[in-house]
Amino acid sequence: MNKLLENRIIRLRAPEPEDLELLYKWENDTSMWEQGNANAPYSRFSLRQYLTESKQDLFVDRQMRLMVVLKELGEVIGMVDLYDFDPFHRRAGVGILIDEEHRKKGYGVQVLEMLEEYAFEFIALHQLYAFVPERNRASMQLFKKAGYTPAATLHEWLLRGERYENVQVWQKIK
Fold this sequence. Notes:
Low-confidence stretches: none
Number of helices: 6
Strand content: 35-45%
CATH topology of the domain at 10-130: Aminopeptidase
CATH class of the domain at 10-130: Alpha Beta
Strand order of the largest sheet: 1-2-3-4-5-7-6
Oligomer: single chain
């Protein structure tokens, strides 16, 4: 299949208003906050505003979220983000979430591969990168399987309770 953002199993699409409850669930899962920079819950109102006001244009918003859909069931099983888009240096950060019940089935690697094709071939980015907390072994394995390489360690980068945690920077260069 030669469609962009789609393979036999998965389609990546823009968020729709009907995704509100899933976004609310995932964005307010406090166990996930440690993987990113969230430190407070999101309201349905703020998420609804995001859904209606986001242009979903990487060049305008400097970020873009795509929902991960299992084509056979039409079920949304996750989301993937391009963020901190830098059009001059042609790079962007990558964040991915696959719902817990759908993990370890190979979907994450497929999503990263489709996103990479879109980013490198359609948007003409030069590199993608991800910040992964060192204790998130599953994410490190995912990025490794997708062909990313560890590029640096940011020491004591994230505050977790009373302690700081190192973060690894993973890169994929075209």
